[in-house]
Amino acid sequence: MRRLLAPLAAVVVLAAGCAPARTGTLGPAPVGAPTTAGATATPRAPAPATTTPSRRPPPASPTTTVPVTPDGPDGGTITVQLWFVRDGKLAPTRRTLPATVATSRLALTELAAGPSRAEAAVGLTTRVPAGVQVVRIADGVAALAPPAGFDSGGTATARLRRAQVVWTLTQFPTVRRVAFTPTDGASTGRDDYADLLPAIVVTGPSIGERVTSPVTVTGSAEVFEATVSVRVLAADGREVGTSFTTAACGSGCRGDYRATVGYRVAVTGPGTVEVYEVSARDGSRINVVSVPVVLVAER
């Protein structure tokens, strides 16, 4: 009997590891980082990691707590992920802001404020208006009270607007779904807007982030043979680093990826992290996502 159970267990484990995910994991939960008085808060660069792909995605962030510190001049900061729109698809970025316990309200306010100048320069926009309020969060559902005209602008625009809100709020461990009217009971989650993700999503580094070599690049992708390519470009367009990795799932399903890319520049200055797919037809770079960053030179 023991001889029969062992092969059966192996089959079950393999099947679980290869199960396709529509959206990948939820990405990082907000992280509180204490700062000293007068310090300027900047997003923290991800810790270096190897390029060895994992076929099993990490646990989704709803199981993670959100460490925050009280408001005040020495209250620390919190980093939140915001989902904006680029070319009719969802695109994430990160903001590091003064810490608050009202993280959902903070995120909705930032969505309505729209992209920064650097984010707008690479095509990010927002469809979310000011005035969206969270009425309550219970049993994993955030019930909202949207302002009048929230669903105006046509079906496609209204759906992108809702997708921005859903993908942004569900980064928090207490929110898995969002109800856009507080009384009808209907709610939606990330999977309901999975078709609004581009072929390649880059969750890190974020636009304008200072990075050091090797830089860690994370996100999710649905690309040919799950192969995600990355290169680092200097300010003059020279390629100063390149690598590739494999997403947890490939053609026909979306999987998370994580890669590290070493680079070498003489002086600290602007650069670009470019994530792309190599075309199976002609070898060209397709589905390119360019993230402007600051490349820190090695001392």
Structural description of this entry:
This is Sporulation and spore germination protein. Residues 23-74 are annotated as: Disordered. Residues 23-54, 62-72 have a biased composition (Low complexity). Residues 104-192 form the GerMN domain. The chain has 299 residues and is of the alpha+beta class. The chain has two domains: 61-197, no CATH class; 200-295, Immunoglobulin-like. The protein is built from four helices and 14 strands. The model is unreliable at 1-22 and 31-73 (pLDDT under 50).
Summarize the SSE layout with pairings.
Layout: H1 2-17, E1 31-33, E2 77-86, E3 89-98, H2 103-113, H3 117-121, E4 133-138, E5 141-145, H4 155-169, E6 177-179, E7 200-204, E8 210-211, E9 215-221, E10 227-234, E11 239-246, E12 255-261, E13 269-278, E14 285-295
Parallel strand pairs: 5-6, 8-14
Antiparallel strand pairs: 1-2, 2-3, 4-5, 7-9, 9-12, 10-11, 10-13, 13-14
What characteristics describe this protein?
299 residues; alpha+beta; Immunoglobulin-like; 2 domains; five-stranded mixed beta sheet; three-stranded antiparallel beta sheet; 16% helix; globular; disordered N terminus
Number of helices: 4
Low-confidence stretches: 1-22, 31-73
**Main sheet strand line-up:** 8-14-13-10-11
Radius of gyration: 20 Å
| Mean pLDDT rating | 82
Main β sheet profile: 5 strands, mixed
- N-to-C CA distance: 62 Å
What structural category characterises the helix and strand content? alpha+beta
Pattern of helices and strands: HEEEHHEEHEEEEEEEEE
Fraction of residues in helix: 10-25%
Number of domains: 2
Domain GerMN: 104-192
InterPro entries: GerMN (IPR019606), Gmad2_Ig-like_dom (IPR018911)
Keywords: Signal
Protein name: Sporulation and spore germination protein
